[in-house]
Amino acid sequence: MEIRSTTDQDLDVFVDTLHAAFGRFPETPAEGGRVRWSALEMDRNLLAVTADGRPVGTAGAYSFELTLPGEILVPAAGVTAVGVLPSHRRQGVLTAMMRRQLTELRARGEFLSVLLASEALIYRRFGYGPATYTQRLTVPRHQAALALPRARGTADSPATGSVELLRRAECGEILEEVYDRYRRAQPGALSRPHRWWALGAGQPPICPAPRYVAVHRDADGVPDGYASYSVGEHNTLTVDETIATDDAVFTALARFLLGHDLVAQVVFKHVAPDHPLRWQLVDFRAGQVSEDTDWLWVRLLDVPRALTARGWFTDGELVLDVEDPFLGEQGRYLLTVRDGKADCVPTDREPDLSLDVSDLGSVYLGGTAPSTLVRAGHIRAHRPGAAALADALFRAERSPHCLHWF
């Protein structure tokens, strides 16, 4: 078997092999053809081919920016389109592709890779750990009233401005601009390159599928938030995503959506687990949580570079003993944080924490507390107080959240 890089001429073979791996058929031109895959970067993809030339596996990567704590933007490879034909599973094809891919990412100078895991059991063994989480929130229309805030102050002031209803085809540039402002300040968010919007690649509202879009404008008329939605079966209003530059704008959009006439319920597909929307409902139980799940998985390819790249909000010092079984590596690092900046160097000092690189990926963005993984038996704390210090160090200014599908 050979693992080889692809070119633009391999697009059809790549997409057909990927669909066959999941037992599906490619979309017909009437269904949108292959618009969803039009943003594939063929110079970053891999094809597993048998000795007689048959393609049996695929793996790809997109070029994204990931927002780290501290509003720091760094390049990250978005691993995607990973599949192996049923006839060739459990024969080492996936492992070979993952090892080749990680080697190539390092050769490109990348120190982070991310993915959305189709199955939670697959990717931890390759060094990925769940780092952001999301949930679906369903609110029955007859219980959708929002309470007035009890606390008064600048942070609780209602958004000033207006909400305008547009169709998706009318506001592509607005969506792109507002999303880009949002993702630059949101830890865990990924960029949406211009070519995605231009090609209509991906899920709504990137693709031009029919959607209504509620656009919020500030007092000066500048768009600062939007919500993409449609009304479907059983009069359910489903919100693809709500993007807002602050909580007051989100509340204004939520009030608009929850006040829609002639719908039975409103479903917010992607809400951060700690989002305050449930608390804003007059009836707390009206917000019904479902599909509470992992979303973005993170893999560190260069531990010192990754740890010194992000912002920090507490001073301290930790010795981390990091094991990377898949790549056969182990390193012990002294992490020193002062005034929001980190230094990370190899050390022979006794470790404070011993952990797998996948667990380091989980805590990296601040969405998983190290102490939770200590209690779960994943991370070993070698001294009292080490887990508490790690919690304080790795926390972010706000919970990481990712909406982008890839």
Automatic annotation (TrEMBL):
Keywords: Acyltransferase, Transferase. Residues 1-153 form the N-acetyltransferase domain. The keyword rRNA-binding does not apply. GO terms for biological process: aminoglycoside antibiotic catabolic process. One of its GO terms (molecular function) is aminoglycoside N-acetyltransferase activity. It comes from the Bacteria. The active site is at Y123 (proton donor), F406 (proton acceptor). Acetyl-CoA binds at V82, G83, V84, R90, Q91, G92, V93, L94, T95, S118, E119. Belongs to the acetyltransferase Eis family. Homohexamer; trimer of dimers. This is N-acetyltransferase domain-containing protein. It comes from Kutzneria albida DSM 43870. The lineage of its organism: Bacteria, Bacillati, Actinomycetota, Actinomycetes, Pseudonocardiales.
